[in-house]
Amino acid sequence: MAFKFASRMDTVKASTIREILKLTEKPEVISFGGGMPAPELFPIEELKEVTLSVLDSAGQKALQYAPTDGYPPLREKIVERLNRLGIEGIDKNNILLTSGSQQGLDFSGKVFLDPGDVVICEKPSYLGAINAFKAYQCKFADIPMDDGGMIMEDLEKALMDNPRVKYIYVIPDFQNPTGKTWSVGRRKELVDMANRYDTIIIEDNPYYELRYEGEIPPAVKSFDTEGRVVFLGTFSKTFSPGLRMGWVCANEEILMKYNLIKQGSDLQVNTLTQMQLNTYIETYDFDARIEEIKKVYRHRRDLMVQMMKENFPEDVKIFVPEGGLFVWLEFPENVNTTQLMLKALEKNVAFVPGDPFYPNGGGENTCRFSFSNMPDEKIIEGIRRMGEVIKEM
Amino acid sequence: MAFKFASRMDTVKASTIREILKLTEKPEVISFGGGMPAPELFPIEELKEVTLSVLDSAGQKALQYAPTDGYPPLREKIVERLNRLGIEGIDKNNILLTSGSQQGLDFSGKVFLDPGDVVICEKPSYLGAINAFKAYQCKFADIPMDDGGMIMEDLEKALMDNPRVKYIYVIPDFQNPTGKTWSVGRRKELVDMANRYDTIIIEDNPYYELRYEGEIPPAVKSFDTEGRVVFLGTFSKTFSPGLRMGWVCANEEILMKYNLIKQGSDLQVNTLTQMQLNTYIETYDFDARIEEIKKVYRHRRDLMVQMMKENFPEDVKIFVPEGGLFVWLEFPENVNTTQLMLKALEKNVAFVPGDPFYPNGGGENTCRFSFSNMPDEKIIEGIRRMGEVIKEM
User: Is the pTM of this model over 0.95?
Assistant: First the structure.
C-alpha cells in the first residue's frame, strides 16, 4: 500500500542513537551510547515516599486534568533555580512545563519554523534537536566552534548570508556531543549579535548542574535584554529521565505561543509527576542529590579519559568536558567511526558515531562516548576492548 | 518586540474550552464545561499500591529512558482490549503509546498533513482535534450527520470535490460534541469508501467503554481490510486523564511514521506511568472499575437530561447520548450560546458553546454540557439556574 504522508516525512528519519539503543539492550553489551543517567542513583525510595504523600494529600487533583502551563509551585521552584544561573526578572508566568526538554525543542521548531527557514547551530550539534527541527523542513547553517563556543565571525557571516534565519540554537554547557562550554564573554557576544540581527536564541541547557570543576557560568539568557532568549531545561539528568519533565523559560509573548502549541500537542504534562517532583524538592535536599551524582560522574569521566589515554593511539584527539555526560573523540581523517562502531559491536561495545550530529554532513572521523551509565569495571573493560578495535583497524 | 513566528501561529488560537476551564477554577462555579472525569472515582488507593510495587520490583527501569514504542506488556494488554472491539490481526507492534490521545491527534496531523491538505470531519467535530490539525495548516470539509453517522452522499461528494483529502477524522462512539454514535452499517460503508477513494481514516475513540445501554459496536478499524484505519485510544476516561496515557493502533508502515514523530517530539511517554498502568491492569479488575464509572455517569446523564426536560423550553433540542460524557443542545436559530454562556457565568454555571466545534463556522445556537464531573446536587442546581438564564434571554 502506498500511503500519502506529509512531505516532512521524507526528511524525518530514524535516530541512529535510538536504533543503537535497541541493539544495546542485550545485557552483555557495554554501552557508551545513549546519554543515560546512572540508574543506581535514581531516588527510588524518596519517590515512593513522595508518591504516597501526594496521593494521600491531593490524589484527586494529581490524577485529574490540569492547566497547560503546569503546577504553579513547581514552576516557582524552577524560577528559583534559574535565578541562580543569573536569569532575573522572571516569575512562574515565564515557565511552561514540557515532556522533557526534547518537547521544548520540538515546540521551538513548531512555533518558529516555516519550510525553508534557517536554523543556525553549532557544528556539530545535538542529533535530537536536529531531528526535531528537521520535521519543520528547515535548513541548517552550522558554525564551527573553538574552545569558547561558536566562532563569532562565522556566526555573523551566517546571519548576513541567511535572511531566513529564525533562531540560533546553542547548548552552552558541556555541549552535546562535543562537551565544549561557551565562555562568559562569548555568551554575551552571542546575545548582542542576536539583538543586532533581530533573531531568537534557543538555549538548550540540560547539563549545567552537572559541572565537575569550576563555577557554573551565567546562562546565555542571563544576558538577554530583549526577551529573545528561550531557555530549555530538564529534570532528566538530575532526577529521572523516565518521568519526562522539562520546561521552557521565555518571555510571556513567546511563551504564550509555546503554550498554545502544548494545548494542541498533548494538553499538559502528567499531573502526578508535576506534584511528585514538587513535593520531592520541598521534602528532600535536591542540591545534595546533585552533588552525589556529580561525584560519581566526575569519577567515571576521569576513569574513562585515563583509560582512553592508556589504550588509544596518540593521534586520537580526546576532548575532556568540564561536566555533562560525554567525551568527544576526533580520529585521523581516514578513520570512519561508523565502521569502527560495527567492529566494536562485534566485541559488545557500543558508542555513537559523530556524523549524525553534523546536519550538513561531515564528522565521519568523530564519535561520542557517554561515561555516565557504566560502572568502573565496564568502563575499564569497554575502553580496553575499544583500544583493541582501534588497533585492529 | 515583533517576533517572527511560523506562519502556522496565525491559525493556532487559544482553545475556548481551556480558557473556560480557567474561569471555572473558582470552587463556586458549577461547571458542565470540560470533559473531566469524576475525580472521586479515581483509583487512588490502588495507584499507591501499584506505585510501591513497581518501584520496589523495578524502580531503576521505571525511572530510566525507555524505547519510544512503549512498554511491551502494556501494549499487549491494549491489544487484548482492542480485540474485544473486533480489531483482529494486530499485535503489540501495532501499538505506540502516546501522551493521551490528544498526542495521537497531533501526530496524525504531523504524519499526514501538508499545508493546504484537506481533513474531512464530522460537522461538528472535536475542538481539540480541529486545533491540533490546524497547526499543520490544513482545510476542513465538514460533513453533516444524522443519527447513524456522517451522511454518506455528502461524504462521497466531499471526497470527489477535494483531491487533497488526506484523511477522514471520525469519533464513532458518543461523538464529541454531539454524543452521536455511528451505526454498524455506516462504519462498514465508511471503510469501503476510504478504500475506494484511497484515503486514511483516523478513528478517535476515547469513550467507547463508557456505554450506558446496548452493546459496544465493532470499531471502524474492525472493518479495515487495507491497513488504512488509524485507531486512537486513551486511558484518560477509564483510569486517569492526569497521567496522560493514550495509544495509536495502526498498521506497521503507518505506525513507524508515528514512532519517528514521537522520537522527535518527546522521545517516549513517562516510563513509570506505563509500568503503573500495566501493573494496575494485572493486579486489579479494570473492567469492574469501568462498570462502577458507568453506573455513576449513567445516573448523572439521566439526571441531567431529566432536569433539562423539566427546566428548559420545549424548543431546545436535547440529544441524549448512549454513553460518553456529553449532552448536546440545539437552540432555536436566533439564540447565541456564547451570549448564553456569559449570562450563565454570572450565575456561576459554565458550559461550552458549540461554535468552536464547527471548523468552517456555524453552530452558534448549539452547546455542549458535560455531566461526568458534577455530583447530583450540582447538576440539579446548575440546570435549574440554566433554565432561569434561558428564560431571561
Answer: yes
